[in-house]
Amino acid sequence: MDPFTKPHGEILTDSIKVEDETQEEMILRLITEHDRNIAIYQTGQRYYDGDPDIKSEDPPKDTNGQTDELKPDWRFDHNPHANLVDQKVGYIVGESPNYQHKEEKVTEVIEKHLGYDFDDDLNDILTAASNKGVEWLHPYVDEEGNFNTLEIPAEQIVPVWKDRKQRVLHAVIRHYTVGDELRVEYWTAERVWYYISKDGELQLGWYHGINENNPTTHLDGESWGRVPFIPFKNNSQSVSDIWRYKTFIDAMNRRSSDTQNMFDESTELIYILRGYEGENLGEFMRNLKFYKAINVSEDGGVDTIRVEVPVTSSNEWLEKLREYVYEYGRGVDFNKNELGNSPSGIALRFLYTGLDLKTKQLARKTIPAIKQLLWFVFEYEDMDGNIADEVDVTFNYNRMVNELEQSQIASMSQTVISDDTVMANHPWVDDLEKEKERLAAEDGRVDSELPIKGVEGDELE
Fold first, then answer.
1. Beta-carbon neighbour count of residue 280 at 10 Å?
2. pLDDT (tens digit per residue) in 172-212
3. 305: which strand partners?
4. Domain locations in the chain as residue ranges
5. 0.90 exceeded by the pTM?
Protein backbone atom coordinates (compact mmCIF):
# COMPACT_ATOMS: atom_id res chain seq x y z
CA MET A 1 0.00 0.00 0.00
CA ASP A 2 1.42 3.41 -0.94
CA PRO A 3 1.57 6.17 1.71
CA PHE A 4 -1.15 8.23 -0.01
CA THR A 5 -3.74 5.44 0.12
CA LYS A 6 -6.32 5.52 2.90
CA PRO A 7 -5.77 2.65 5.40
CA HIS A 8 -8.02 -0.32 4.86
CA GLY A 9 -9.47 0.02 8.36
CA GLU A 10 -10.71 3.54 7.56
CA ILE A 11 -12.13 2.31 4.26
CA LEU A 12 -14.06 -0.40 6.12
CA THR A 13 -15.39 2.09 8.66
CA ASP A 14 -16.39 4.60 5.97
CA SER A 15 -18.19 1.89 4.00
CA ILE A 16 -20.44 1.06 6.94
CA LYS A 17 -22.69 3.99 6.11
CA VAL A 18 -23.22 5.55 2.72
CA GLU A 19 -23.87 9.27 2.41
CA ASP A 20 -27.28 10.46 3.68
CA GLU A 21 -28.06 6.99 5.07
CA THR A 22 -29.60 6.66 8.52
CA GLN A 23 -28.40 4.07 11.01
CA GLU A 24 -31.57 2.07 10.51
CA GLU A 25 -31.19 2.11 6.71
CA MET A 26 -27.57 1.01 7.07
CA ILE A 27 -28.58 -1.90 9.33
CA LEU A 28 -31.23 -3.13 6.89
CA ARG A 29 -28.78 -2.88 3.99
CA LEU A 30 -26.11 -4.89 5.82
CA ILE A 31 -28.67 -7.52 6.84
CA THR A 32 -29.75 -7.89 3.21
CA GLU A 33 -26.12 -8.32 2.12
CA HIS A 34 -25.50 -10.83 4.91
CA ASP A 35 -28.58 -12.91 4.10
CA ARG A 36 -27.00 -13.89 0.78
CA ASN A 37 -24.39 -15.86 2.72
CA ILE A 38 -26.78 -17.75 4.99
CA ALA A 39 -27.15 -20.63 2.51
CA ILE A 40 -23.35 -20.97 2.54
CA TYR A 41 -23.32 -21.14 6.35
CA GLN A 42 -26.10 -23.71 6.36
CA THR A 43 -24.53 -26.09 3.81
CA GLY A 44 -22.04 -27.63 6.23
CA GLN A 45 -24.67 -27.82 8.96
CA ARG A 46 -27.10 -29.55 6.57
CA TYR A 47 -24.56 -32.20 5.65
CA TYR A 48 -23.64 -32.68 9.32
CA ASP A 49 -27.33 -33.21 10.14
CA GLY A 50 -27.75 -35.78 7.36
CA ASP A 51 -29.46 -33.53 4.82
CA PRO A 52 -27.16 -33.49 1.75
CA ASP A 53 -28.11 -32.11 -1.67
CA ILE A 54 -29.28 -35.50 -2.93
CA LYS A 55 -32.18 -35.43 -0.45
CA SER A 56 -33.67 -32.34 -2.14
CA GLU A 57 -33.23 -33.41 -5.77
CA ASP A 58 -36.31 -33.78 -7.96
CA PRO A 59 -37.86 -37.26 -8.11
CA PRO A 60 -37.42 -39.31 -11.32
CA LYS A 61 -39.71 -38.37 -14.22
CA ASP A 62 -41.36 -40.45 -16.94
CA THR A 63 -41.27 -39.67 -20.67
CA ASN A 64 -44.11 -37.18 -20.22
CA GLY A 65 -42.23 -35.21 -17.58
CA GLN A 66 -44.44 -36.46 -14.76
CA THR A 67 -43.18 -37.97 -11.50
CA ASP A 68 -42.68 -41.71 -11.96
CA GLU A 69 -43.92 -43.28 -8.73
CA LEU A 70 -42.90 -46.78 -9.85
CA LYS A 71 -39.24 -45.98 -10.53
CA PRO A 72 -36.80 -46.75 -7.67
CA ASP A 73 -35.56 -43.59 -5.99
CA TRP A 74 -33.04 -44.44 -3.27
CA ARG A 75 -31.13 -41.52 -1.73
CA PHE A 76 -28.28 -42.66 0.50
CA ASP A 77 -26.26 -40.38 2.75
CA HIS A 78 -22.79 -41.65 3.70
CA ASN A 79 -22.15 -38.54 5.87
CA PRO A 80 -18.36 -38.72 6.34
CA HIS A 81 -18.54 -34.97 7.00
CA ALA A 82 -20.07 -35.56 10.44
CA ASN A 83 -17.35 -38.12 11.21
CA LEU A 84 -14.59 -35.70 10.20
CA VAL A 85 -16.04 -32.80 12.19
CA ASP A 86 -16.59 -34.90 15.32
CA GLN A 87 -13.10 -36.34 14.94
CA LYS A 88 -11.52 -32.88 14.74
CA VAL A 89 -13.53 -31.36 17.59
CA GLY A 90 -13.01 -34.41 19.80
CA TYR A 91 -9.30 -34.29 19.02
CA ILE A 92 -8.90 -30.71 20.23
CA VAL A 93 -11.44 -30.41 23.07
CA GLY A 94 -12.23 -34.01 23.93
CA GLU A 95 -10.19 -33.21 27.04
CA SER A 96 -10.59 -29.90 28.88
CA PRO A 97 -8.18 -27.11 27.86
CA ASN A 98 -5.46 -26.12 30.32
CA TYR A 99 -5.24 -22.57 31.68
CA GLN A 100 -2.03 -21.51 33.41
CA HIS A 101 -1.03 -18.26 35.10
CA LYS A 102 1.63 -17.35 37.64
CA GLU A 103 -0.97 -16.10 40.15
CA GLU A 104 -3.21 -18.67 41.83
CA LYS A 105 -6.05 -16.15 42.17
CA VAL A 106 -6.24 -15.82 38.40
CA THR A 107 -6.45 -19.56 37.83
CA GLU A 108 -9.16 -19.82 40.51
CA VAL A 109 -11.26 -17.22 38.67
CA ILE A 110 -10.80 -19.10 35.40
CA GLU A 111 -11.80 -22.41 36.98
CA LYS A 112 -14.87 -20.72 38.46
CA HIS A 113 -16.20 -19.50 35.10
CA LEU A 114 -14.65 -21.87 32.55
CA GLY A 115 -15.52 -25.19 34.12
CA TYR A 116 -17.37 -28.25 32.86
CA ASP A 117 -20.32 -26.27 31.47
CA PHE A 118 -18.02 -24.15 29.34
CA ASP A 119 -16.16 -27.26 28.13
CA ASP A 120 -19.50 -28.61 26.93
CA ASP A 121 -20.39 -25.29 25.28
CA LEU A 122 -16.98 -25.10 23.63
CA ASN A 123 -17.53 -28.51 22.03
CA ASP A 124 -20.82 -27.25 20.52
CA ILE A 125 -19.30 -23.95 19.41
CA LEU A 126 -16.35 -25.55 17.60
CA THR A 127 -18.66 -28.08 15.97
CA ALA A 128 -20.81 -25.25 14.63
CA ALA A 129 -17.71 -23.30 13.55
CA SER A 130 -16.44 -26.34 11.63
CA ASN A 131 -19.80 -26.62 9.87
CA LYS A 132 -20.39 -22.94 9.14
CA GLY A 133 -16.94 -21.37 9.21
CA VAL A 134 -17.63 -19.27 12.31
CA GLU A 135 -19.86 -19.27 15.39
CA TRP A 136 -20.40 -16.51 17.93
CA LEU A 137 -20.41 -16.28 21.73
CA HIS A 138 -22.17 -13.48 23.63
CA PRO A 139 -20.99 -12.78 27.21
CA TYR A 140 -23.55 -11.10 29.46
CA VAL A 141 -24.64 -10.67 33.06
CA ASP A 142 -27.99 -12.29 33.84
CA GLU A 143 -30.83 -10.90 35.95
CA GLU A 144 -29.34 -12.43 39.10
CA GLY A 145 -26.01 -10.70 38.52
CA ASN A 146 -24.14 -13.82 37.39
CA PHE A 147 -21.72 -13.87 34.49
CA ASN A 148 -22.98 -16.06 31.66
CA THR A 149 -22.51 -16.73 27.95
CA LEU A 150 -24.85 -17.50 25.06
CA GLU A 151 -23.97 -19.21 21.78
CA ILE A 152 -25.35 -17.19 18.85
CA PRO A 153 -25.73 -18.86 15.41
CA ALA A 154 -23.61 -17.33 12.65
CA GLU A 155 -26.76 -16.89 10.58
CA GLN A 156 -27.94 -14.20 13.04
CA ILE A 157 -24.75 -12.13 13.25
CA VAL A 158 -23.57 -9.36 10.92
CA PRO A 159 -20.12 -8.22 12.11
CA VAL A 160 -18.80 -4.76 11.31
CA TRP A 161 -15.01 -4.82 11.61
CA LYS A 162 -12.57 -2.01 12.32
CA ASP A 163 -9.56 -3.67 10.71
CA ARG A 164 -8.74 -5.75 7.65
CA LYS A 165 -7.62 -8.74 9.74
CA GLN A 166 -11.04 -8.82 11.41
CA ARG A 167 -9.72 -8.74 14.96
CA VAL A 168 -11.49 -5.68 16.38
CA LEU A 169 -15.24 -5.19 16.13
CA HIS A 170 -16.74 -1.78 15.39
CA ALA A 171 -20.27 -3.10 15.91
CA VAL A 172 -22.44 -6.20 15.67
CA ILE A 173 -25.91 -6.53 14.17
CA ARG A 174 -27.96 -9.44 15.47
CA HIS A 175 -31.21 -10.27 13.67
CA TYR A 176 -33.69 -13.07 14.23
CA THR A 177 -37.41 -13.75 13.99
CA VAL A 178 -39.94 -14.42 16.72
CA GLY A 179 -43.05 -15.75 15.03
CA ASP A 180 -43.51 -13.46 12.03
CA GLU A 181 -41.70 -10.55 13.66
CA LEU A 182 -38.14 -9.57 12.70
CA ARG A 183 -36.13 -8.34 15.66
CA VAL A 184 -32.82 -6.54 15.32
CA GLU A 185 -30.16 -5.58 17.85
CA TYR A 186 -27.34 -3.14 17.09
CA TRP A 187 -24.42 -3.42 19.52
CA THR A 188 -21.47 -1.03 19.82
CA ALA A 189 -18.78 -0.81 22.50
CA GLU A 190 -20.98 1.38 24.71
CA ARG A 191 -24.61 0.96 23.70
CA VAL A 192 -27.22 -1.35 22.25
CA TRP A 193 -30.29 -0.48 20.17
CA TYR A 194 -33.31 -2.79 20.03
CA TYR A 195 -35.48 -2.66 16.91
CA ILE A 196 -38.61 -4.28 15.54
CA SER A 197 -39.19 -4.40 11.78
CA LYS A 198 -42.58 -3.05 10.67
CA ASP A 199 -43.57 -2.50 7.05
CA GLY A 200 -39.94 -2.85 5.96
CA GLU A 201 -38.66 -0.23 8.40
CA LEU A 202 -36.92 -0.50 11.77
CA GLN A 203 -38.64 0.98 14.80
CA LEU A 204 -37.26 1.15 18.33
CA GLY A 205 -38.86 -1.44 20.58
CA TRP A 206 -38.73 -2.67 24.18
CA TYR A 207 -39.25 -6.39 23.60
CA HIS A 208 -36.06 -7.11 25.56
CA GLY A 209 -37.91 -6.32 28.80
CA ILE A 210 -36.21 -3.06 29.73
CA ASN A 211 -38.77 -0.25 30.06
CA GLU A 212 -36.10 2.43 30.04
CA ASN A 213 -34.15 4.30 27.42
CA ASN A 214 -33.53 2.74 24.04
CA PRO A 215 -30.66 2.72 23.16
CA THR A 216 -29.38 1.52 26.51
CA THR A 217 -26.16 0.32 28.11
CA HIS A 218 -24.96 -3.29 28.00
CA LEU A 219 -25.36 -3.76 31.75
CA ASP A 220 -27.30 -2.04 34.50
CA GLY A 221 -26.13 1.53 34.02
CA GLU A 222 -22.75 0.66 32.50
CA SER A 223 -21.19 -1.03 29.49
CA TRP A 224 -18.28 -3.35 28.80
CA GLY A 225 -16.32 -0.86 26.69
CA ARG A 226 -16.09 -3.59 24.03
CA VAL A 227 -18.61 -5.08 21.65
CA PRO A 228 -19.72 -8.15 23.68
CA PHE A 229 -19.57 -10.70 20.89
CA ILE A 230 -16.72 -13.14 20.27
CA PRO A 231 -16.13 -14.95 16.95
CA PHE A 232 -14.91 -18.53 17.08
CA LYS A 233 -13.47 -19.01 13.61
CA ASN A 234 -12.80 -22.32 11.91
CA ASN A 235 -9.79 -20.95 10.02
CA SER A 236 -8.38 -17.69 8.69
CA GLN A 237 -11.00 -17.56 5.94
CA SER A 238 -13.92 -18.44 8.28
CA VAL A 239 -14.87 -21.19 5.82
CA SER A 240 -16.56 -24.51 6.60
CA ASP A 241 -14.68 -27.79 6.23
CA ILE A 242 -17.42 -29.09 3.92
CA TRP A 243 -16.11 -27.20 0.89
CA ARG A 244 -12.89 -29.24 0.86
CA TYR A 245 -14.71 -32.44 -0.07
CA LYS A 246 -18.39 -31.74 -0.77
CA THR A 247 -18.17 -32.85 -4.41
CA PHE A 248 -16.73 -36.22 -3.36
CA ILE A 249 -19.53 -36.76 -0.83
CA ASP A 250 -22.12 -35.88 -3.47
CA ALA A 251 -20.50 -38.38 -5.85
CA MET A 252 -20.54 -41.08 -3.15
CA ASN A 253 -24.20 -40.49 -2.40
CA ARG A 254 -25.14 -40.51 -6.07
CA ARG A 255 -23.10 -43.62 -6.95
CA SER A 256 -24.44 -45.71 -4.06
CA SER A 257 -28.01 -44.54 -4.66
CA ASP A 258 -27.82 -45.28 -8.38
CA THR A 259 -26.36 -48.71 -7.66
CA GLN A 260 -29.26 -49.54 -5.34
CA ASN A 261 -31.73 -48.26 -7.93
CA MET A 262 -30.11 -50.53 -10.51
CA PHE A 263 -30.40 -53.46 -8.09
CA ASP A 264 -34.12 -52.84 -7.78
CA GLU A 265 -34.56 -52.51 -11.52
CA SER A 266 -32.40 -55.56 -12.28
CA THR A 267 -35.05 -57.80 -10.74
CA GLU A 268 -37.23 -56.86 -13.67
CA LEU A 269 -36.60 -57.88 -17.27
CA ILE A 270 -36.18 -55.57 -20.24
CA TYR A 271 -38.55 -56.70 -23.00
CA ILE A 272 -37.68 -56.51 -26.70
CA LEU A 273 -40.92 -56.55 -28.70
CA ARG A 274 -41.28 -57.57 -32.33
CA GLY A 275 -44.64 -57.19 -34.09
CA TYR A 276 -46.48 -56.00 -30.98
CA GLU A 277 -50.11 -55.21 -31.87
CA GLY A 278 -50.88 -52.88 -28.99
CA GLU A 279 -51.04 -49.10 -28.94
CA ASN A 280 -48.27 -48.25 -26.46
CA LEU A 281 -45.82 -49.70 -23.95
CA GLY A 282 -48.08 -48.83 -21.03
CA GLU A 283 -50.77 -51.09 -22.46
CA PHE A 284 -48.15 -53.83 -22.95
CA MET A 285 -47.11 -53.73 -19.29
CA ARG A 286 -50.72 -53.77 -18.11
CA ASN A 287 -51.56 -56.77 -20.29
CA LEU A 288 -48.44 -58.56 -19.11
CA LYS A 289 -49.19 -57.82 -15.47
CA PHE A 290 -52.88 -58.71 -15.43
CA TYR A 291 -53.26 -61.26 -18.23
CA LYS A 292 -49.74 -62.71 -18.41
CA ALA A 293 -50.13 -62.54 -22.22
CA ILE A 294 -49.81 -60.07 -25.11
CA ASN A 295 -50.85 -59.97 -28.77
CA VAL A 296 -48.14 -60.03 -31.42
CA SER A 297 -48.19 -60.44 -35.21
CA GLU A 298 -47.42 -63.69 -36.99
CA ASP A 299 -43.74 -62.82 -37.27
CA GLY A 300 -43.61 -61.15 -33.86
CA GLY A 301 -42.17 -62.24 -30.58
CA VAL A 302 -40.71 -61.16 -27.25
CA ASP A 303 -37.10 -61.35 -26.11
CA THR A 304 -35.74 -60.36 -22.70
CA ILE A 305 -32.55 -58.82 -21.33
CA ARG A 306 -31.57 -58.84 -17.65
CA VAL A 307 -29.69 -55.81 -16.30
CA GLU A 308 -26.29 -56.59 -14.76
CA VAL A 309 -25.31 -54.32 -11.87
CA PRO A 310 -21.58 -53.32 -11.89
CA VAL A 311 -21.08 -54.08 -8.20
CA THR A 312 -17.31 -54.55 -8.26
CA SER A 313 -16.52 -51.36 -10.16
CA SER A 314 -19.00 -49.40 -8.02
CA ASN A 315 -17.41 -50.62 -4.79
CA GLU A 316 -13.93 -49.77 -6.07
CA TRP A 317 -15.01 -46.27 -7.05
CA LEU A 318 -16.82 -45.70 -3.74
CA GLU A 319 -13.68 -46.72 -1.86
CA LYS A 320 -11.63 -44.31 -3.98
CA LEU A 321 -14.07 -41.49 -3.26
CA ARG A 322 -13.85 -42.31 0.42
CA GLU A 323 -10.06 -42.01 0.26
CA TYR A 324 -10.42 -38.62 -1.44
CA VAL A 325 -12.73 -37.39 1.33
CA TYR A 326 -10.27 -38.33 4.09
CA GLU A 327 -7.28 -37.07 2.11
CA TYR A 328 -8.70 -33.65 1.29
CA GLY A 329 -10.62 -33.50 4.57
CA ARG A 330 -7.35 -34.15 6.46
CA GLY A 331 -8.87 -36.79 8.69
CA VAL A 332 -7.71 -40.10 10.14
CA ASP A 333 -9.26 -43.10 8.40
CA PHE A 334 -9.36 -45.74 11.12
CA ASN A 335 -10.86 -48.28 8.72
CA LYS A 336 -7.43 -48.70 7.17
CA ASN A 337 -5.30 -51.34 8.84
CA GLU A 338 -1.95 -50.35 7.40
CA LEU A 339 -0.17 -49.81 10.72
CA GLY A 340 -0.61 -53.22 12.31
CA ASN A 341 -1.81 -54.07 15.81
CA SER A 342 0.77 -52.09 17.81
CA PRO A 343 2.07 -49.16 15.76
CA SER A 344 5.04 -47.15 16.98
CA GLY A 345 4.84 -43.55 18.07
CA ILE A 346 6.40 -42.39 14.78
CA ALA A 347 3.83 -44.32 12.75
CA LEU A 348 0.97 -42.86 14.80
CA ARG A 349 2.31 -39.32 14.39
CA PHE A 350 2.43 -39.90 10.64
CA LEU A 351 -1.17 -41.14 10.74
CA TYR A 352 -2.27 -37.94 12.49
CA THR A 353 -0.34 -35.53 10.23
CA GLY A 354 -3.35 -34.24 8.32
CA LEU A 355 -5.56 -33.96 11.39
CA ASP A 356 -2.79 -32.13 13.28
CA LEU A 357 -2.46 -29.63 10.43
CA LYS A 358 -6.19 -28.95 10.29
CA THR A 359 -6.70 -28.85 14.06
CA LYS A 360 -3.83 -26.45 14.71
CA GLN A 361 -5.47 -23.95 12.36
CA LEU A 362 -8.59 -24.20 14.51
CA ALA A 363 -6.51 -23.89 17.69
CA ARG A 364 -4.81 -20.69 16.47
CA LYS A 365 -8.26 -19.11 16.11
CA THR A 366 -9.77 -20.61 19.26
CA ILE A 367 -7.08 -19.48 21.71
CA PRO A 368 -7.53 -15.74 20.92
CA ALA A 369 -11.30 -16.21 21.19
CA ILE A 370 -10.96 -17.81 24.63
CA LYS A 371 -8.66 -14.97 25.72
CA GLN A 372 -11.31 -12.47 24.58
CA LEU A 373 -13.80 -14.33 26.75
CA LEU A 374 -11.36 -14.21 29.68
CA TRP A 375 -11.15 -10.42 29.25
CA PHE A 376 -14.89 -10.21 29.98
CA VAL A 377 -14.52 -12.67 32.88
CA PHE A 378 -11.79 -10.61 34.55
CA GLU A 379 -13.67 -7.35 33.98
CA TYR A 380 -16.74 -8.90 35.61
CA GLU A 381 -14.59 -9.90 38.60
CA ASP A 382 -13.31 -6.28 38.90
CA MET A 383 -9.88 -7.34 37.70
CA ASP A 384 -7.79 -5.97 34.86
CA GLY A 385 -9.16 -7.55 31.68
CA ASN A 386 -5.72 -7.41 30.08
CA ILE A 387 -4.62 -10.22 32.40
CA ALA A 388 -6.17 -12.45 29.75
CA ASP A 389 -3.13 -11.82 27.55
CA GLU A 390 -0.92 -13.39 30.24
CA VAL A 391 -2.92 -16.62 30.50
CA ASP A 392 -1.38 -19.62 28.76
CA VAL A 393 -4.14 -21.62 27.01
CA THR A 394 -3.20 -25.09 25.75
CA PHE A 395 -5.14 -28.08 24.45
CA ASN A 396 -4.75 -31.74 25.37
CA TYR A 397 -4.92 -33.33 21.95
CA ASN A 398 -6.80 -36.60 22.14
CA ARG A 399 -4.33 -38.60 20.05
CA MET A 400 -3.98 -42.37 20.09
CA VAL A 401 -0.55 -43.32 21.45
CA ASN A 402 1.50 -46.42 22.05
CA GLU A 403 1.16 -46.39 25.85
CA LEU A 404 4.01 -48.82 26.51
CA GLU A 405 6.43 -46.84 24.38
CA GLN A 406 5.26 -43.52 25.83
CA SER A 407 5.55 -44.65 29.45
CA GLN A 408 9.03 -46.10 28.84
CA ILE A 409 10.19 -42.80 27.36
CA ALA A 410 8.75 -40.94 30.37
CA SER A 411 10.52 -43.29 32.79
CA MET A 412 13.88 -42.88 31.06
CA SER A 413 13.52 -39.07 31.00
CA GLN A 414 13.10 -38.56 34.74
CA THR A 415 16.66 -37.39 35.35
CA VAL A 416 16.82 -35.28 32.18
CA ILE A 417 13.67 -33.12 32.28
CA SER A 418 11.38 -31.81 35.02
CA ASP A 419 8.89 -34.03 36.82
CA ASP A 420 6.04 -31.82 35.57
CA THR A 421 7.02 -32.46 31.96
CA VAL A 422 7.33 -36.19 32.58
CA MET A 423 3.89 -36.35 34.19
CA ALA A 424 2.28 -34.14 31.55
CA ASN A 425 3.44 -36.50 28.80
CA HIS A 426 2.61 -39.74 30.58
CA PRO A 427 -0.26 -41.54 28.75
CA TRP A 428 -2.21 -42.12 31.97
CA VAL A 429 -2.18 -38.49 33.15
CA ASP A 430 -5.15 -36.45 31.91
CA ASP A 431 -4.95 -33.52 34.35
CA LEU A 432 -1.47 -32.49 35.49
CA GLU A 433 -2.58 -30.35 38.44
CA LYS A 434 -4.91 -33.00 39.84
CA GLU A 435 -2.22 -35.64 39.44
CA LYS A 436 0.22 -33.47 41.41
CA GLU A 437 -2.41 -33.03 44.12
CA ARG A 438 -2.90 -36.79 44.34
CA LEU A 439 0.86 -37.37 44.59
CA ALA A 440 1.16 -34.75 47.34
CA ALA A 441 -1.70 -36.36 49.25
CA GLU A 442 -0.09 -39.79 48.96
CA ASP A 443 3.30 -38.45 50.10
CA GLY A 444 1.67 -36.80 53.11
CA ARG A 445 -0.14 -39.98 54.06
CA VAL A 446 3.04 -42.03 53.77
CA ASP A 447 4.99 -39.57 55.94
CA SER A 448 2.33 -39.71 58.66
CA GLU A 449 1.76 -43.47 58.60
CA LEU A 450 5.24 -44.98 58.19
CA PRO A 451 7.23 -45.21 61.49
CA ILE A 452 10.92 -44.36 61.64
CA LYS A 453 12.95 -47.29 62.96
CA GLY A 454 14.35 -46.70 66.46
CA VAL A 455 12.36 -43.51 67.09
CA GLU A 456 9.30 -43.34 69.28
CA GLY A 457 6.30 -41.34 68.20
CA ASP A 458 6.69 -38.86 71.10
CA GLU A 459 10.27 -38.09 70.07
CA LEU A 460 9.06 -36.72 66.69
CA GLU A 461 7.05 -33.99 68.34
1. 9
2. 999 999 988 899 999 999 999 999 998 889 999 866 555 55
3. 270
4. 8-241, 246-328, 413-451
5. no
